[in-house]
UniProtKB/TrEMBL annotation:
Active site positions: T11 (o-isoaspartyl threonine intermediate), T84
Organism, scientific name: Poritiphilus flavus
InterPro entries assigned to the protein according to its UniProt record, in alphabetical order: Asp/glu_Ase-like_sf, Asparaginase/glutaminase-like, Asparaginase/glutaminase_AS2, L-asparaginase_N, L-asparaginase_N_sf
Gene3D superfamilies according to UniProt: L-asparaginase, N-terminal domain
Protein name as annotated: Asparaginase
Top-level taxonomic group: Bacteria
Binding site for substrate: S55, T84, D85
Gene Ontology molecular function, alphabetical: asparaginase activity
PROSITE patterns (UniProt xref): ASN_GLN_ASE_2, ASN_GLN_ASE_3
Alphabetized SUPFAM superfamilies for the sequence: Glutaminase/Asparaginase
Length: 161
């Protein structure tokens, strides 16, 4: 089993600022690297960076580049770390442009660097699901996994269901 992890940015990958003063988070190395180092996985994997953006800044061109990357690369499954604000938009976009591949989008409500982050659990759900799913586009968040066409999000609390 080979999983290709693709970083696009979002809260999961936000890191503390490297400059003094200020509260703006920055993007650094993929959070997936730190999570996988704790897992010591029994599967083959690669990590690619497609972008490092807040999901509100992801454009249609970024989404097309992501689709092109997934269509070009050879793996058994693709796990895309993404910001939650437009995760469903990207999933819908990929649904019409990626065919016959297992693609799971996931992210976090709090940066992976935070001790109370949901990032490791969300990534773990995506990894486990990658071993079992039929081709399609899915979202793994808040301990659930659903296809892009079935997932919904509560506007009041931000939870996917």
């Amino acid at each position: 089993m080979k999983i290709l992890f693709i970083q696009t940015g979002g809260t999961i990958d936000k890191d503390y600022p490297k400059t003094k003063g200020g509260w703006a988070f920055e993007f650094g190395e993929p959070a997936t690297e730190r999570i996988l180092s704790k897992l010591d996985p029994s599967f083959e994997y690669e990590i690619h960076t497609a972008s490092q953006k807040d999901s509100l800044e992801i454009t249609e061109a970024d989404r097309q580049s992501l689709a092109d990357l997934i269509n070009k690369e050879v793996a058994d499954a693709y796990v895309v770390t993404h910001g939650t604000d437009t995760m469903m938009d990207t999933a819908a976009f990929l649904s019409s442009r990626v065919d016959r591949k297992v693609v799971i989008l996931t992210g976090a409500m709090r940066p992976e660097r935070f001790s109370n982050s949901d990032a490791p659990i969300n990534l773990g759900v995506a990894i486990g699901a990658a071993n079992l799913l039929d081709p399609g586009i899915y979202i793994a968040m808040h301990g659930i996994l659903k296809s892009a066409s079935e997932i919904q999000r509560n506007a009041d609390n931000g939870k996917f269901y």
